[in-house]
Write a structure and sequence with these properties.
With 294 residues, the chain is α/β, with parallel strands linked by helices. It folds into two domains: 37-118 and 224-291, D-Maltodextrin-Binding Protein, domain 2 (3-Layer(aba) Sandwich); 119-222, D-Maltodextrin-Binding Protein, domain 2, CATH 3.40.190.10. Helix content is 44%, strand content 21%. It contains eleven helices and eleven strands. Helix 7 crosses helix 9 (254-271). Residues 36-266 form the Solute-binding protein family 3/N-terminal domain.
Length: 294
């Protein structure tokens, strides 16, 4: 065989064996989601809740679905109480959670994604009292002797944490088991103010109790919100891929679009409360048609 022909055949054989090998390595690499991922959530509208058909709905649910779709992953949403979901995340029986604030305690058992949205803690009054209660800073609660309603579960910012004992000593602190009960107590005149998430508090008040709240000026806390991935069932590589999805969908405007849609939905629900429906009906009525419109 002529030398030139031999050299050509040698190069051809190298190409035949080399390029398929490169392709095979890519296909053999572990996929981001080798199986459907389980994501825990509890009822916290408008971020997450279970509708009448047992399907997860809400702002955080839609955002996680978008991240998963970008990565080619399937998500199974599991409705579970908050405390139990953290235990399941620790053991690896749950892969992910949404809407999480990063803490040192949680970092012991979870990987935190890049932040994908923000959350504010605000003070609210009944709409009919918005002109009679003026508050520009936290200390006005003490100077004006305003009674504050606080759901027992949640983080409400440094101002509250640092003055909680003083509030109790001056009989200005009224604790309640949850947001629903807090709104009820506010309407019964048990307190002057209520504290909570800037989006969830007025939404739940309007949908569950048919009550309109007005927000006051101070922003008590501003938190970055993350996904939590179980250290037992998820890998650092999977975390990197979810961070990539968050970055891409943030940069192309998809995250902002979804958040804006839910902000508008929340506002619409607060300003148009139907008196012909039960509180439970009000929570879900019309959401299906509004939720997936673009």
């Amino acid at each position: 065989m002529p030398k030139g022909v031999f050299q050509f055949c040698h190069i051809l054989l190298l190409c035949v064996f080399t390029f398929p090998a490169l392709g095979a390595t890519s296909k053999a690499a572990s996929p981001i989601c080798a199986h459907p991922l389980s994501a825990g959530y509890n009822d916290w509208p408008p971020y997450a809740w279970q509708d009448r058909q047992g399907v997860a709905q809400g702002l955080d649910v839609e955002l996680l679905r978008s991240f998963a779709e970008y990565l080619g992953c399937e998500i199974n949403f599991i409705n579970v109480p908050a405390k139990r979901s953290h235990q399941m995340l620790k053991s690896g029986t749950l892969d992910m959670m949404m809407g999480a604030t990063k803490t040192f305690e949680r970092e012991e058992y979870a990987l935190f994604s890049s932040p994908y949205r923000h959350e504010e803690v605000r003070l609210f009054v009944l709409d009919e009292k918005k002109d009679s209660i003026k508050l520009s800073q936290w200390q006005d609660i003490f100077s004006q002797k305003l009674r504050l309603l606080v759901p027992i579960s949640g983080w409400y910012g440094a101002d509250y944490e640092q003055t909680r004992e003083r509030l109790a000593q001056e009989n200005l602190l009224v604790l309640s088991p949850d947001v629903d009960k807090s709104v009820q107590m506010l309407t019964y005149g048990r307190a002057d103010l209520i504290i909570g998430d800037a989006m969830a508090m007025p939404y739940i008040a309007s949908q569950h109790q048919g009550i309109r709240l007005s927000v006051l000026n101070p922003i008590l806390d501003h938190n970055q919100i993350h996904l939590m991935l179980s250290k037992q069932s998820m890998s650092v590589e999977q975390l990197k891929q979810f961070n990539k999805a968050i970055k891409v969908l943030t940069n192309n405007g998809e995250v902002a679009r979804i958040i804006h849609k839910w902000q508008q939905l929340s506002l619409a629900k607060q300003t148009k409360i139907s008196n012909q429906q039960s509180p439970i009906d009000r929570q879900y009525a019309g959401l299906s048609s509004l939720m997936f419109s673009k």
